[in-house]
C-alpha cells in the first residue's frame, strides 16, 4: 500500500488549498482514511477522517466549516479542501489509511499560511 500526498504550498490567510492523497494497493470501501498534521514543535493531530464504507466523517473542531474531506473511488484518491486558511493551519499534512490491523502513512506535504 502506498499513499502519496500532494497539493501543499504557501497561501495567504483566507486563501484555499486542496490536498490530494493518491492511494494504491488498497480498495476504498474497506478502509478508514484521514488527514493528520504536525506543526513545528507540536504533536501530530488528526484533522479529518472518513469511513470509506459508510461515508461518515470526522473533523477537528478548529477546522469544522472550513475543511471538507472527500473520496474519489474511481481515482482512488482522497482530498482535503481547505478554505479560509489561518496561520495556525501551518503544518506538514499527512494522509493515513487504516485497513483492519494495518496502518499506512504517506509522506507529508507542507502547508504554510502567511498572515
Can you characterise this structure?
The protein is mainly beta and 115 residues long. Helix content is 0%, strand content 57%. Strands 2, 4, 5, 6, 9, 10 and 11 form a seven-stranded mixed β-sheet that branches.
Average pLDDT, rounded to a whole number, is 96
Number of helices: 0
Morphology call: globular
The secondary structure category is: mainly beta
End-to-end separation: 37 Å
- Ranges where pLDDT stays below 50 over 5 or more residues in a row are none
Give the strand tally.
11
Q: Describe the sheet with the most strands.
A: 7 strands, mixed
Q: In angstroms, what is the radius of gyration?
A: 13 Å
Helix content: under 10%
Strand content: over 45%
Can you write the helix and strand succession as a string? EEEEEEEEEEE
Quick overview:
By secondary structure, the chain is mainly beta. The chain has strands at residues 2-6, 9-12, 17-24, 32-38, 45-51, 57-59, 67-72, 77-82, 91-99, 102-105, 109-114.
Amino acid at each position: 500500500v502506498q499513499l502519496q500526498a500532494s497539493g501543499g504550498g504557501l497561501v495567504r490567510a483566507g486563501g484555499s488549498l486542496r490536498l490530494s492523497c493518491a492511494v494504491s494497493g488498497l480498495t476504498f470501501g474497506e478502509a478508514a482514511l484521514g488527514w493528520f498534521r504536525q506543526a513545528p514543535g507540536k504533536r501530530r493531530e488528526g484533522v479529518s477522517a472518513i469511513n470509506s464504507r459508510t461515508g461518515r466523517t470526522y473533523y477537528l473542531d478548529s477546522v469544522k466549516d472550513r475543511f471538507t474531506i472527500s473520496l474519489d473511488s474511481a481515482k482512488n484518491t482522497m482530498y482535503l479542501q481547505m478554505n479560509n486558511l489561518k496561520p495556525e493551519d501551518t503544518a506538514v499534512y499527512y494522509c493515513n489509511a487504516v485497513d483492519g490491523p494495518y496502518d499506512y502513512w504517506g509522506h507529508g506535504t507542507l502547508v504554510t499560511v502567511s498572515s
